[in-house]
UniProtKB/TrEMBL annotation:
It comes from Mucilaginibacter celer. The lineage of its organism: Bacteria, Pseudomonadati, Bacteroidota, Sphingobacteriia, Sphingobacteriales. This is Alpha/beta fold hydrolase. The keyword Flavoprotein does not apply. Residues 35-278 form the AB hydrolase-1 domain. The keyword Isomerase does not apply.
Amino acid sequence: MITTEVSNNTRTSYHKVQIDGLEIFYRQAGNLGKPLIFLLHGFPSSSHMFRNLIEQLSDDYCLIAPDYPGFGYSSCPHPAKFDYTFDRLSEIVEKLIDELKLSDITFYMQDYGGPIGFRVATRRPELIKGLIIQNANAFEEGIGPDVQKIGTLHAAGDWKALNRVVDYMMSLEGIKEQYIFGTANAGLISPDSYYTDYFLIMQPGRIEVQKILFENYGTNFPLYPEWQQYLKEHQPPTLVAWGNNDKIFPGAGAMAYRQVLPQADVHLFDGGHFLLEEYSKEVAVLIKSFMQSNAGKL
């Protein structure tokens, strides 16, 4: 049964809440009196990508992980009825935070979670106490070959080739590749991850939504200086845990955060884009250490 209340329970519970007429799904675990980690997922996944990490941290923290509109178990309205842009997705996330009356938040941001989370943080810096960044880019140095290829095709106006690339990224093989590429041990990657993503992305209307978001992704690059200025000005305690072999956002993107956050705790893993599938236990240990060492700030 899916409920709409935020509860106190170390076990993961599953909820839906109405935001702007949409049903927004989220996972929640832990005690609300403990430090809050708000987890923002990437493409083509959902809050499902955080399932192991949530279980590993729920004794010590409150964890909330939503699905964006068009992802996971949240509503997927037709594009004629909802503006699928990163601006709009960030507004829905911000409204969810307000609806649940959350504050003193540590954002965990992966992939799409970066442009969504940074938009919220720059609008509402008072909400954010810390950041955990995992393969979520905010610097030109972190733009990997896959993103560069898409950008080149877009700039050249080669729409047929671009459409083939995007279609492949949303195919089962393409999604599996995002999970497997760059891993140290592909045998540790559960097929549940990429089969779940593929099942959900193949639900009615979702392919169209993802193509619209691909088209809108270019709006993120001009905002990099604004996000960097936010980091430089506010200096939020920051943990960076990054799959070094990611060909979407390679390890150089992790190291670039030290340009504006010289005290950032940066860790590069011998892994890929979906680091948690291979190293969730190790990342959980880092998070506990990070949260404890910044206990007076978070």
